[in-house]
């Protein structure tokens, strides 16, 4: 019983738990705050966004971010690994230039180009977010693999490991914390950037923001921005849980 209470206490004292509860509670309960927004913005005829439920927009936003991040991580890790292999080192400048261009071009421009080609909705948003999230993953994958000590690689070779065994058992585990930091940055960027996907008809938490900006409705903008901000906090705290922690060594007595 004591152990279960301690476990429950740790969960309740975890900032991630409270951030998730706040995000879900605000998504479900936002319509109940209509009197508050009516008081804050008395000049607005419609102080509450009611074209779609906030919980549905939250779910669609998360799905879009997860899908685009999976593409970014898959392509970014593969490109980063290839750029650090003997066969791909000559192509590293080209790879880095291409992924940098993907983040330099504004996502709005990518959406404007992709929408006439693939149609409106989630498809152009997926393309834009996947391209925009590549750079941190590629850069951190390269940095992580290059930070592996040469002594560790030499020891692995001395043990008779093949190239694949050396990569899987030595290089990748040592590089993983750095790679995960790049994935974390990419996902958090995409959480915020996904809001503009609503300009091409995708369902995201950017819908009230875009409609609010076009209709000069500050209440709509605030409602969407609150949920996007909370979602970014939840994502960041979740990655903080996933980040490897250094082992604590206790001094011998």
Automatic annotation (TrEMBL):
<dbReference type="GO" id="GO:0031460">
    <property type="term" value="P:glycine betaine transport"/>
</dbReference>
<dbReference type="Pfam" id="PF00528">
    <property type="entry name" value="BPD_transp_1"/>
</dbReference>
<feature type="transmembrane region" description="Helical">
    <location>
        <begin position="220"/>
        <end position="239"/>
    </location>
</feature>
<keyword id="KW-1133">Transmembrane helix</keyword>
<dbReference type="InterPro" id="IPR000515">
    <property type="entry name" value="MetI-like"/>
</dbReference>
<dbReference type="GO" id="GO:0005886">
    <property type="term" value="C:plasma membrane"/>
</dbReference>
<comment type="similarity">
    <text>Belongs to the binding-protein-dependent transport system permease family.</text>
</comment>
<feature type="transmembrane region" description="Helical">
    <location>
        <begin position="53"/>
        <end position="83"/>
    </location>
</feature>
<keyword id="KW-0472">Membrane</keyword>
<dbReference type="InterPro" id="IPR051204">
    <property type="entry name" value="ABC_transp_perm/SBD"/>
</dbReference>
<feature type="domain" description="ABC transmembrane type-1">
    <location>
        <begin position="58"/>
        <end position="239"/>
    </location>
</feature>
<keyword id="KW-0813">Transport</keyword>
<protein>
    <submittedName>
        <fullName>Osmoprotectant transport system permease protein</fullName>
    </submittedName>
</protein>
<feature type="transmembrane region" description="Helical">
    <location>
        <begin position="104"/>
        <end position="135"/>
    </location>
</feature>
<feature type="transmembrane region" description="Helical">
    <location>
        <begin position="174"/>
        <end position="200"/>
    </location>
</feature>
<feature type="transmembrane region" description="Helical">
    <location>
        <begin position="12"/>
        <end position="33"/>
    </location>
</feature>
<dbReference type="GO" id="GO:0055085">
    <property type="term" value="P:transmembrane transport"/>
</dbReference>
<keyword id="KW-0812">Transmembrane</keyword>
<dbReference type="InterPro" id="IPR035906">
    <property type="entry name" value="MetI-like_sf"/>
</dbReference>
